[in-house]
Amino acid sequence: MVVIAIIGILAATALVNSGRNPDRDVRLEKDRLVTFFREVQNKALTTEKVSGTGGKICGFGVHKNSDSELRVYYVETSGASPLDVDCSGVTNTYPGDSYKLETFSFRNGVAIGSFDDLFFLSPHGEIYTNGNNNSTSFPVKITLSKDSATLTDIIQIDKSGRIY
């Protein structure tokens, strides 16, 4: 009888832990997304090289492609002497798919809410949201949700570059 009771308790625990848990899925995706943003920010801070470019890389950004996918893009200088161009004057919004590097896909049915393009200007990592870096645009708040429930988790990015 004791062995059967122990097996029953273990089976019930396993069922509860393996069931759907939207809270856990959103928290896991939040952690993945924070790591992803930090990786993109590090690309800009280190002025990472991109193969096949003809100009100077001025920064890296994140663009919302859909509720379940984000794209990393880069902005490069152009013109007669592209390596001599100052990056402070470049357009820092999504330039199109030809400048796409990689994608971030959400797992387990988690979706991102409203999201403006986020851009990290090289080499100091100044942050722009939708092409602006004025103080009224910050902190950037990103909402993640799962299913039709109001289950949300918020990521914030402030003007200094802190992602939390």
Give structural attributes:
five-stranded antiparallel β-sheet; 2 helices; 164 residues; alpha+beta; 29% strand; three-stranded antiparallel β-sheet; 8 strands
Number of helices: 2
Biggest sheet character: 5 strands, antiparallel
Share of helical residues:
25-40%
Rg, Å, rounded: 21 Å
Mean pLDDT: 84
How far the N terminus sits from the C terminus, by CA atoms, comes to: 51 Å
Strand order of the largest sheet: 3-2-1-5-6
Number of strands: 8
- Residue ranges: pLDDT <50 for 5 or more in a row? none
Structural class call reads alpha+beta
Task: Kindly estimate the percentage of residues that lie in beta strands according to DSSP.
Answer: 25-35%
SSE topology string: HHEEEEEEEE
Overview of the molecule:
By secondary structure, the chain is of the alpha+beta class. It has a domain at 20-50 and 71-78 and 100-164. The protein has 2 helices and 8 strands. It has helices at residues 2-18, 22-45, and strands at 57-66, 69-76, 100-105, 110-112, 118-121, 126-129, 140-146, 152-157. The protein has a 5-stranded antiparallel beta sheet with strand order 3-2-1-5-6, with helices on one face. A hairpin with a 5-residue loop joins strand 7 and strand 8 (152-157). The protein starts with a helix and ends in a 7-residue tail after the last strand.
Compact description:
The chain is 25% helix and 29% strand. It has 164 residues and is of the alpha+beta class. The chain has a domain of 104 residues.
